[in-house]
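#random but structural
TW: two for the price of one
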Amino acid sequence: MLSFLLIAASPLFAQLPHSIDIGNPAKAGSSRLESGVYRITASGQNMWGASDAFHFRYDEFRGDVSIQAKVEWVGEGKNAHRKAGPIFRASLDPDAPYADFIFHGSGELALQYRKTKGGPTAEIQTTIRPPVLARLERHGDVISAEVSRDGVTWNPVGALSIAMPEKIYAGLAACSHDDSVTETALVREVRIAARGVAEKRVTESTLEVIDIETKQRRIVRRAKEHFEAPNWSRDNQLIYNSGGRLYRIPAAGGTPTAIDTGERIRCNNDHGLSPDGKWLAISDGSANRQSQVYVLPAGGGTPRLLTPQFPSYWHGWSPDGKTLAYCARRGDNFDVYTIPVAGGEEKRLTTADGLDDGPDYSPDGKYIYFNSVRSGVMRIWRMLADGSEQQMFLPGGDSADWFAHPSPDGKWIVYVSFEKTVEGHPPNKDVTLKLVPAEGGKPRVIATLFGGQGTINVPSWSPDSKSVAFVSYRLVP
């Protein structure tokens, strides 16, 4: 059975009974619990790179665990990058794999992590600044971080997988970032949820919205069920698929309602709205267990079949509303096709060996962006809308890139990246959402999450081009 234990900081019960200096700081650290507040004093050169030096207040936990805390610094401090916050470690070695959610003396807040023993440290920053509650959670191999102003509404910061043993060392860390001094952090509102080892897990899906400038994320819906692929309507509704059906929910949050798709009740994650918002394209396998593309009124109704041949997976709608772009297998190859919305013959646009997928139109109708494996690794490509002048849009890099979607104002392209060694676009992988100017340039990461298939398969820009909707995942008890 899965155990659950919630422990709150209290002057009567020290839930983190052990204290130790990790990595031999020049000055000894100390910690104590006073009136429900942990007072941690620490030296240490840094918590970064291939090895760490800090003071650790901790206990041993098996399986899933969550730590919530708020950090306040004592005094001005010598180094702006003194650090304190909740932490998980694979061992007490200074170079152990770890993840922490660290408050810097400067006000910066970041999820830091080292995936392998002695490996490099990386981080996921948030633009949200203290005072906030920080929550670090472990669900199996997935580590996630969230922040909250009120302890009720939480904003995701990032998530990724780190292979750690069943038993980990979890607690609170502090580091002066200068071995010649000690710094003191007060850690308040500590809550620890020790859930133990899960015998089985289910998918928890989180429908999120991210502001592309601030990179701040907010939760629209979180549930222990599998849902995928949001679209964003003109009236600020999000449409997603779950269990073969499509649902609509306000982008601000609320209760989802099912969309009537008639007899088409095996809808997959390739669906989207027409430019005028009146029609909905879906990809469904109810008729013959293989996906075909249909069109129906956006509010629901009887779908009309557009692709008698299968499998076919919708991905883009031309700006004039007259043409659909989709990926389809004909024979032994997947390619990009288009077809008139009014009905007619499909047109094949790509002929390269291997997978060509994810076509989406630029808002001026000039280009179709798509992803292709023809170079040996999945990359983002671009062609004219008639299929001519096919060129790699984002060459090189150490990632495999999928599903490029232009913003409605034509300024940006958002896409999802897997690690380069990942084949296809499977679920439950570490991925990043990246943003690049539509004229080309250097991409920047706007979100790091545990996701993949279902995260951002289809167009999901807000009508004002300021935000993107996506789905992240966790495997929870």
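TW: number two ↓
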Amino acid sequence: MPAKKDKLSLLREYLGNDDQQIKEMLELFLQNIPNDLNELSLVCKKNDIDSIQKTAHRLKSSVRFFGLDDVATLLQQIEISSKEQPDFEQLDKLTKQINKLMEQELIRFEKMLSLF
């Protein structure tokens, strides 16, 4: 059985393994990400291509920092798809998939935060 990946390894490396700073970044992430995900859902419903691209790009960077590569991949699909010939139904499906994954991850991050 493979070892479980430390989702905070990139953040730990970037912050020199400073637990206080990691905790603060995790708190900020947990405070901000629900609004960011909501924004992505809203701009997808409005078919606002420019905002979809910008929001997906911004979110992709944030989630990668927290080891959420599967979510980052979906956000990249949204970003690329919205630049080409956007299929708004597909964008909506991807957004729902991201939200479902993030629900689970946010619970895990809340538990991690309680360990600091």
